[in-house]
Amino acid sequence: MTLGGIEHAEALVMTHGVEVPNGHGLSGGWPGATVRQTWGRNAIENGRARSADYEVFGPKPGLMRMTDRDVFAVSWQGGGGSGDPIEREVQSVAADLARGLVSIESALEIYGVVMANGEVYPSATRAKRCSIRKQRLAVSIAAESGPARSDIAFDGEVVGHIGEEMRLISFGGTAHVVTRAGAVLASGDTRWRKRARKSTTERLIAQHGILFHEELMATIWYCPKSGAQLAVDVHRKDESPLDDVILDLAAGLSS
Prior knowledge:
- By secondary structure, the chain is of the alpha+beta class.
- Helices cover 15% and strands 29% of the residues.
- The radius of gyration is 23 Å and the shape is elongated.
């Protein structure tokens, strides 16, 4: 954006979503990209763009003088994803790439889709997605986390779902949170994070446009059997992520 019809004006630049994602993912989806706003001083000469150094702004640079030789450039935040990105339909990723919505690097690293010259390579894609799952399962389990159980007989009744990957299964008078791969993450309540596998990062795939304030970090949760991505929590470094919904499943079954 630049000025048209006037030589200068006072510009007030204030926004949110620069250091904290506005769109959070669901059921293992990544949060949306954060806002990036830059200022190109004297980036226009004789009405045409010229080479210039662009200053990257924080969320609230404030009031400043803008001339018709300056450019204010913004890439806005995106919406959060839904579900594990490596479970997304390959052709949908390819279509996004063709429309310029994702880069070939993002298609590979986020979605595990191997492409070249607009063509998808199915066998290489399967191998890449398998490799991503193995990398997730290699992360350390937190000291307070317990092992996932697999001793529940799965002929119980499915009484609900938590996202796309976890089910509530009633067995033996108790409801259990069970992943599609059969890992029991909680019994009697929905505090499933205590038995999930996790990794942490302070720079969440910054090359794909998700940046954090220096006081924030992300914890990513995985199924300990399949490596499926269950949730991505953005939180303060000095705080542990909270369980988003806590249900007393025993009370629910008895009522």
